[in-house]
Design brief:
Elements (H helix, E strand, L loop, with lengths): L3 E4 L10 H16 L3 E3 L8 E5 L13 E4 L10 H7 L5 E4 L2 H7 L9 E2 L23 E8 L6 H14 L6 E8 L4 H5 L7 E4 L5 H10 L2 E3 L9 H8 L4 E4 L4 H4 L6 E3 L2 E6 L3 H5 L6 E6 L1 H13 L1 H18 L2 H15 L2
Parallel strand pairs: 1-2, 1-3, 3-4, 4-5, 5-6, 7-8, 7-10, 8-9, 10-11, 11-12
Antiparallel strand pairs: 13-14
Length: 342
Protein backbone atom coordinates (compact mmCIF):
# COMPACT_ATOMS: atom_id res chain seq x y z
CA UNK A 1 0.00 0.00 0.00
CA UNK A 2 1.34 3.42 -0.94
CA UNK A 3 2.05 5.69 2.03
CA UNK A 4 0.49 9.14 2.17
CA UNK A 5 1.89 11.90 4.41
CA UNK A 6 0.33 15.21 5.35
CA UNK A 7 3.16 17.80 5.36
CA UNK A 8 2.02 20.24 8.03
CA UNK A 9 4.58 23.05 7.77
CA UNK A 10 5.07 23.87 4.12
CA UNK A 11 4.59 27.64 3.90
CA UNK A 12 7.64 29.88 3.50
CA UNK A 13 8.01 32.53 6.23
CA UNK A 14 11.69 33.42 5.87
CA UNK A 15 13.74 35.23 8.50
CA UNK A 16 15.19 32.97 11.17
CA UNK A 17 13.20 29.97 9.89
CA UNK A 18 14.90 29.76 6.49
CA UNK A 19 16.91 26.69 7.55
CA UNK A 20 13.85 24.86 8.87
CA UNK A 21 11.80 25.71 5.81
CA UNK A 22 14.56 24.65 3.42
CA UNK A 23 14.82 21.38 5.35
CA UNK A 24 11.05 20.89 5.10
CA UNK A 25 10.77 21.65 1.38
CA UNK A 26 13.84 19.69 0.28
CA UNK A 27 12.88 16.63 2.33
CA UNK A 28 9.27 16.72 1.09
CA UNK A 29 10.40 16.91 -2.53
CA UNK A 30 12.86 14.04 -2.05
CA UNK A 31 10.31 11.88 -0.24
CA UNK A 32 7.80 12.46 -3.04
CA UNK A 33 10.43 11.57 -5.65
CA UNK A 34 10.77 8.17 -3.97
CA UNK A 35 7.09 7.43 -4.43
CA UNK A 36 5.45 8.61 -1.21
CA UNK A 37 2.42 10.84 -1.76
CA UNK A 38 2.63 14.21 -0.01
CA UNK A 39 -0.56 16.15 0.70
CA UNK A 40 -0.92 19.69 2.02
CA UNK A 41 -4.66 19.61 2.74
CA UNK A 42 -5.56 18.02 6.11
CA UNK A 43 -9.04 17.19 4.83
CA UNK A 44 -7.53 14.53 2.57
CA UNK A 45 -6.95 11.02 4.00
CA UNK A 46 -3.37 10.38 5.10
CA UNK A 47 -1.32 7.91 7.15
CA UNK A 48 0.66 10.37 9.28
CA UNK A 49 1.19 14.08 9.81
CA UNK A 50 4.78 15.31 9.48
CA UNK A 51 5.78 18.37 11.51
CA UNK A 52 9.07 20.07 10.64
CA UNK A 53 9.26 23.27 12.63
CA UNK A 54 10.63 24.83 15.78
CA UNK A 55 9.76 22.69 18.82
CA UNK A 56 7.77 25.50 20.41
CA UNK A 57 5.49 25.52 17.35
CA UNK A 58 4.70 21.79 17.38
CA UNK A 59 0.95 21.20 17.56
CA UNK A 60 -0.07 17.53 17.23
CA UNK A 61 -3.25 16.79 15.30
CA UNK A 62 -5.70 14.93 17.55
CA UNK A 63 -6.55 11.40 16.48
CA UNK A 64 -3.70 11.21 13.94
CA UNK A 65 -0.20 9.74 13.89
CA UNK A 66 2.11 12.72 14.45
CA UNK A 67 5.74 12.52 13.37
CA UNK A 68 7.77 15.43 14.74
CA UNK A 69 11.13 16.23 13.12
CA UNK A 70 12.61 18.64 15.67
CA UNK A 71 16.08 19.86 16.57
CA UNK A 72 17.90 21.48 19.48
CA UNK A 73 20.86 23.72 18.76
CA UNK A 74 22.10 24.80 22.20
CA UNK A 75 22.60 22.68 25.32
CA UNK A 76 18.89 22.82 26.18
CA UNK A 77 15.58 24.08 24.81
CA UNK A 78 15.02 27.81 25.22
CA UNK A 79 11.85 27.03 27.18
CA UNK A 80 11.94 23.52 28.70
CA UNK A 81 8.41 23.91 30.11
CA UNK A 82 7.00 24.19 26.60
CA UNK A 83 8.87 21.07 25.53
CA UNK A 84 7.51 19.14 28.47
CA UNK A 85 3.99 20.06 27.35
CA UNK A 86 4.44 19.50 23.62
CA UNK A 87 6.94 17.01 22.27
CA UNK A 88 5.85 14.28 24.68
CA UNK A 89 2.65 14.20 22.59
CA UNK A 90 4.46 13.17 19.40
CA UNK A 91 3.94 9.57 18.27
CA UNK A 92 7.38 9.55 16.67
CA UNK A 93 10.29 11.92 17.26
CA UNK A 94 12.97 12.43 14.63
CA UNK A 95 16.09 14.57 14.72
CA UNK A 96 19.20 14.90 12.57
CA UNK A 97 22.12 14.42 14.97
CA UNK A 98 23.29 12.78 18.19
CA UNK A 99 23.56 16.18 19.90
CA UNK A 100 19.85 16.90 19.48
CA UNK A 101 18.89 13.34 20.35
CA UNK A 102 20.70 13.49 23.69
CA UNK A 103 18.87 16.65 24.72
CA UNK A 104 15.46 15.67 23.38
CA UNK A 105 15.61 12.34 25.22
CA UNK A 106 15.14 14.25 28.49
CA UNK A 107 11.72 15.42 27.32
CA UNK A 108 10.57 12.42 25.33
CA UNK A 109 10.38 9.29 27.49
CA UNK A 110 7.99 7.37 25.20
CA UNK A 111 10.11 5.64 22.60
CA UNK A 112 13.40 5.71 20.79
CA UNK A 113 14.31 8.92 19.03
CA UNK A 114 15.22 8.34 15.40
CA UNK A 115 18.15 10.03 13.69
CA UNK A 116 17.74 11.10 10.07
CA UNK A 117 20.76 12.99 8.70
CA UNK A 118 19.91 15.82 6.35
CA UNK A 119 21.45 16.31 2.95
CA UNK A 120 22.43 18.50 0.07
CA UNK A 121 21.60 18.56 -3.61
CA UNK A 122 24.64 17.59 -5.74
CA UNK A 123 22.97 19.04 -8.84
CA UNK A 124 22.32 22.41 -7.20
CA UNK A 125 25.68 22.47 -5.39
CA UNK A 126 28.18 20.66 -7.64
CA UNK A 127 31.93 20.66 -7.12
CA UNK A 128 33.57 23.96 -8.15
CA UNK A 129 37.28 24.00 -9.16
CA UNK A 130 39.16 26.80 -7.40
CA UNK A 131 42.61 28.35 -7.31
CA UNK A 132 44.12 30.81 -4.89
CA UNK A 133 43.69 34.33 -6.27
CA UNK A 134 46.78 36.48 -6.80
CA UNK A 135 47.60 39.00 -4.06
CA UNK A 136 46.07 41.86 -6.02
CA UNK A 137 42.70 40.02 -6.14
CA UNK A 138 40.31 39.45 -3.19
CA UNK A 139 40.57 36.28 -1.12
CA UNK A 140 37.00 35.91 0.13
CA UNK A 141 35.93 34.40 3.45
CA UNK A 142 32.19 33.68 3.32
CA UNK A 143 29.80 33.50 6.29
CA UNK A 144 26.12 32.61 5.74
CA UNK A 145 23.56 32.31 8.55
CA UNK A 146 20.82 34.16 10.37
CA UNK A 147 21.56 37.10 12.66
CA UNK A 148 20.58 35.31 15.88
CA UNK A 149 23.18 35.51 18.66
CA UNK A 150 23.52 31.71 18.77
CA UNK A 151 24.86 31.82 15.19
CA UNK A 152 27.71 34.15 16.14
CA UNK A 153 27.12 36.92 13.58
CA UNK A 154 28.18 39.76 15.86
CA UNK A 155 31.00 37.63 17.23
CA UNK A 156 32.31 36.89 13.72
CA UNK A 157 32.27 40.59 12.93
CA UNK A 158 34.30 41.39 16.06
CA UNK A 159 36.87 38.67 15.33
CA UNK A 160 37.30 40.02 11.81
CA UNK A 161 37.85 43.55 13.08
CA UNK A 162 40.32 42.38 15.75
CA UNK A 163 42.30 40.40 13.18
CA UNK A 164 42.53 43.51 11.03
CA UNK A 165 43.82 45.60 13.92
CA UNK A 166 46.69 43.17 14.57
CA UNK A 167 48.18 44.00 11.20
CA UNK A 168 48.60 40.31 10.35
CA UNK A 169 45.54 39.98 8.14
CA UNK A 170 46.62 39.88 4.47
CA UNK A 171 45.40 43.04 2.72
CA UNK A 172 43.54 41.16 0.00
CA UNK A 173 41.37 39.21 2.47
CA UNK A 174 37.70 40.15 2.65
CA UNK A 175 34.73 38.93 4.67
CA UNK A 176 31.34 38.52 2.98
CA UNK A 177 28.51 38.02 5.49
CA UNK A 178 25.21 36.87 4.01
CA UNK A 179 22.74 37.39 6.85
CA UNK A 180 19.03 36.66 7.25
CA UNK A 181 16.57 37.53 9.99
CA UNK A 182 16.31 40.57 12.24
CA UNK A 183 18.73 41.97 14.75
CA UNK A 184 21.19 43.46 12.26
CA UNK A 185 21.41 46.85 13.92
CA UNK A 186 24.29 45.87 16.20
CA UNK A 187 26.28 44.64 13.22
CA UNK A 188 25.64 47.73 11.15
CA UNK A 189 26.63 50.08 13.98
CA UNK A 190 30.09 48.58 14.35
CA UNK A 191 33.10 50.14 12.69
CA UNK A 192 33.31 48.85 9.12
CA UNK A 193 36.76 48.57 7.63
CA UNK A 194 36.39 49.90 4.05
CA UNK A 195 36.73 47.32 1.32
CA UNK A 196 37.09 44.38 3.72
CA UNK A 197 33.55 43.63 4.82
CA UNK A 198 30.23 43.20 3.06
CA UNK A 199 26.91 42.72 4.87
CA UNK A 200 24.34 41.18 2.52
CA UNK A 201 20.73 40.90 3.73
CA UNK A 202 19.15 39.55 0.53
CA UNK A 203 17.31 36.23 0.30
CA UNK A 204 18.76 34.26 -2.59
CA UNK A 205 17.28 31.52 -4.77
CA UNK A 206 19.36 28.36 -4.99
CA UNK A 207 21.27 29.36 -8.14
CA UNK A 208 22.46 32.66 -6.66
CA UNK A 209 23.31 30.96 -3.38
CA UNK A 210 25.50 28.51 -5.30
CA UNK A 211 27.19 31.46 -7.00
CA UNK A 212 28.06 32.91 -3.58
CA UNK A 213 29.82 29.67 -2.65
CA UNK A 214 31.51 29.52 -6.04
CA UNK A 215 32.95 33.03 -5.67
CA UNK A 216 34.35 32.35 -2.18
CA UNK A 217 37.71 30.92 -1.16
CA UNK A 218 36.79 29.78 2.35
CA UNK A 219 33.56 29.22 4.28
CA UNK A 220 33.20 29.96 8.01
CA UNK A 221 30.50 28.71 10.39
CA UNK A 222 30.50 30.16 13.91
CA UNK A 223 27.27 28.60 15.21
CA UNK A 224 27.32 28.09 18.97
CA UNK A 225 25.11 25.07 18.46
CA UNK A 226 23.41 23.52 15.44
CA UNK A 227 20.97 20.76 14.61
CA UNK A 228 22.65 20.12 11.26
CA UNK A 229 24.27 23.04 9.41
CA UNK A 230 22.69 23.34 5.96
CA UNK A 231 24.92 26.16 4.71
CA UNK A 232 28.06 24.33 5.80
CA UNK A 233 26.90 21.18 4.02
CA UNK A 234 26.15 23.18 0.87
CA UNK A 235 29.55 24.91 0.98
CA UNK A 236 31.33 21.59 1.44
CA UNK A 237 29.28 20.09 -1.39
CA UNK A 238 30.90 22.62 -3.75
CA UNK A 239 34.38 21.77 -2.41
CA UNK A 240 34.75 25.11 -0.64
CA UNK A 241 37.39 24.83 2.14
CA UNK A 242 35.48 25.26 5.37
CA UNK A 243 35.91 26.08 9.06
CA UNK A 244 33.40 25.13 11.75
CA UNK A 245 33.24 24.65 15.54
CA UNK A 246 33.87 21.06 16.64
CA UNK A 247 30.63 20.50 18.52
CA UNK A 248 26.89 19.72 18.20
CA UNK A 249 25.73 18.34 14.83
CA UNK A 250 28.92 19.11 12.94
CA UNK A 251 30.91 16.31 14.56
CA UNK A 252 28.45 13.75 13.18
CA UNK A 253 29.41 14.34 9.56
CA UNK A 254 32.43 16.67 9.26
CA UNK A 255 35.99 16.06 10.45
CA UNK A 256 39.63 17.16 9.84
CA UNK A 257 39.85 15.02 6.71
CA UNK A 258 37.27 17.24 5.03
CA UNK A 259 38.02 20.66 6.48
CA UNK A 260 39.13 22.69 9.46
CA UNK A 261 37.22 22.15 12.72
CA UNK A 262 38.00 24.48 15.62
CA UNK A 263 38.21 22.58 18.91
CA UNK A 264 39.33 25.51 21.09
CA UNK A 265 35.92 26.52 22.45
CA UNK A 266 34.39 28.17 25.49
CA UNK A 267 30.93 28.01 27.05
CA UNK A 268 28.63 30.99 26.56
CA UNK A 269 25.39 31.38 28.58
CA UNK A 270 22.05 32.26 26.96
CA UNK A 271 19.31 33.93 28.97
CA UNK A 272 15.55 34.09 28.51
CA UNK A 273 15.66 37.88 28.14
CA UNK A 274 17.92 40.90 28.69
CA UNK A 275 16.67 41.43 32.23
CA UNK A 276 17.70 37.92 33.27
CA UNK A 277 21.12 38.48 31.72
CA UNK A 278 21.63 41.76 33.57
CA UNK A 279 20.56 40.30 36.92
CA UNK A 280 22.66 37.17 36.33
CA UNK A 281 19.77 34.76 36.68
CA UNK A 282 20.34 31.14 35.80
CA UNK A 283 20.88 30.76 32.02
CA UNK A 284 18.33 28.75 30.08
CA UNK A 285 21.02 27.15 27.92
CA UNK A 286 24.66 27.24 26.94
CA UNK A 287 26.37 27.43 23.58
CA UNK A 288 29.96 26.74 22.61
CA UNK A 289 31.78 29.60 20.91
CA UNK A 290 35.06 29.32 19.03
CA UNK A 291 37.92 31.28 20.54
CA UNK A 292 38.89 34.15 18.28
CA UNK A 293 42.58 33.31 18.12
CA UNK A 294 41.80 29.70 17.21
CA UNK A 295 39.45 30.76 14.42
CA UNK A 296 41.97 33.24 13.00
CA UNK A 297 44.65 30.53 13.12
CA UNK A 298 42.46 28.31 10.94
CA UNK A 299 41.81 31.18 8.52
CA UNK A 300 45.54 31.84 8.24
CA UNK A 301 46.21 28.12 7.78
CA UNK A 302 43.88 28.01 4.80
CA UNK A 303 45.22 31.22 3.31
CA UNK A 304 48.87 30.17 3.67
CA UNK A 305 48.44 26.60 2.39
CA UNK A 306 45.56 26.78 -0.05
CA UNK A 307 46.49 23.65 -2.05
CA UNK A 308 45.96 21.56 1.10
CA UNK A 309 42.69 23.38 1.79
CA UNK A 310 41.51 22.59 -1.73
CA UNK A 311 42.47 18.93 -1.27
CA UNK A 312 40.29 18.70 1.84
CA UNK A 313 37.55 20.60 0.04
CA UNK A 314 37.48 18.03 -2.75
CA UNK A 315 37.19 15.23 -0.19
CA UNK A 316 34.37 17.14 1.49
CA UNK A 317 32.51 17.42 -1.80
CA UNK A 318 32.91 13.71 -2.48
CA UNK A 319 31.60 12.89 1.00
CA UNK A 320 28.54 15.11 0.68
CA UNK A 321 27.71 13.82 -2.81
CA UNK A 322 28.01 10.16 -1.82
CA UNK A 323 26.79 10.04 1.80
CA UNK A 324 24.62 13.07 2.51
CA UNK A 325 22.11 13.84 -0.22
CA UNK A 326 18.43 14.66 0.08
CA UNK A 327 17.64 11.38 -1.66
CA UNK A 328 19.46 9.47 1.08
CA UNK A 329 17.78 11.59 3.76
CA UNK A 330 14.39 10.82 2.21
CA UNK A 331 15.07 7.08 2.08
CA UNK A 332 15.97 7.08 5.78
CA UNK A 333 12.92 9.18 6.66
CA UNK A 334 10.60 6.83 4.79
CA UNK A 335 12.04 3.90 6.78
CA UNK A 336 11.25 5.78 9.99
CA UNK A 337 7.69 6.61 8.86
CA UNK A 338 6.99 2.98 8.05
CA UNK A 339 8.04 2.00 11.56
CA UNK A 340 5.94 4.78 13.10
CA UNK A 341 2.69 4.15 11.20
CA UNK A 342 0.70 1.20 12.63
Amino acid sequence: MKMKLYWVNHKWRGGKTIGIETHSKKLADAVAALGVEIVFDPSEPYDAAVHINEPEDFRPIPGKVNIAFLQVELSAPRDPAIWQRTISKADCLVTSCEHSKAIESKYYPKKNIYICPLGTDPDAFPFVPRVKPPKDQPFRFLWINNAGPEKGSLYMRMIWETWGKTGTRPPNCELYMKISGGGLEELENLTVLPGNLTLDKQVYPTKQLHDLYAKANCFIDTSMGDGWGLTLSEAMSTGLPSIWPAHSAFIDWADPATGYPVSDLYSLPFYKNDEDAQTKKKPIAYGLAVKGAALVARMEEIYNNYPEALRRGRLASERMHTRYTWKQAAARFIEICKEAVP
